[in-house]
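Please, structure for the following, as C-alpha cells.
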Amino acid sequence: MSEELVLLHFSTDGIATITLNRPEVHNAFNEELIEQLGEMIVDVGHQEGVRAVIIAAAGKSFSAGADLNWMKRAAHFTEEDNREDSINFAEMLKNLYTMPKPTIALVQGPAYGGGLGLVAACDIAIGVRDVKFCLSEVKLGLIPAVISPYVVEAMGARACRRYFQTAEMFDGETAHRLGLLHELVDDVHHLAEARDKLLDQIVKNAPGAMADAKDLVSTVAGRPIDSHILRETADRIAERRASDEGKEGVQAFLEKRKPHWHII
C-alpha cells in the first residue's frame, strides 16, 4: 500500500479538506504526491454532496515546491520525459482551477514555486500574515512555466515581471496587496475562523449557480464587451432564471424563507 501523501476528510456538512501530508520535507512535490493530489482533485470535484473544497497542508510549511530528489531525477530526463512530467502537474492544476465547486487555500506557512502555484489556482486564498512566498525558479536556471497562467491571473502581469525575474521572497502583506491572498490573519487559529466564516457564506448559496458563476468569470475575463459577449451573458442569465435553482431562489426570497437547494 502506498504512503498517504495527501489526506482527504469530509465534514458532515459537505466540506472536503485535502491536506498535503509530507511535513518532513515541507510538503514538497514529487511524482507520487502529484499523482495522489491529482486523482483526489478529480474525484472530489465530481462527488455529489461536496459544497466546497479546502486545500491545506500539514506541518509548518504549505509547500516548498519541487522535491529535491525529484529534481535530481529530472536532471537526467530527456526533454520528452520532462514534458510528460510537467504535463501531469499542469493537468492537476487545471483540474483544481476548473473544479465546479468553490476552492479555498489555507496558507499557514511558506509557499514556494509550485506551492505558490497551487494557492493561485484556488478560487480563494487566506494566509497567515507572516507567511513567505517565493518564485525561485530562475535561481536554478528554470522558469515558473506551468504555474504561470494562475500566478499571472492572481498577481497581475506587472508584479510577475518583477517576481519571476528577481526570485525575491515576499510576505503575506505583499501577497495580499498583489491579490494572491484575499485575506490575512494573524495566526493559525484565526485561519480556521476565517475559513469557517467563508464556508458559512458558501453553504447558503445555490451549488449550481456557484459553479456557473465560476465558469462565467473564466468566460468573460479579458474579452471585449461586444455583441457576442452581450448575447452570451444574456443567454446565461436567461438559463439561470429558468432553472430549478433560479426559480427556487427567487420564490424563497419572495416568501421570506430559506431556499432548498439540491446538492450536486
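The chain has a mean pLDDT of 95. Strands lie at 6-10, 15-20, 52-57, 103-107, 111-112, 124-128, 132-134, 169-171, 183-185.
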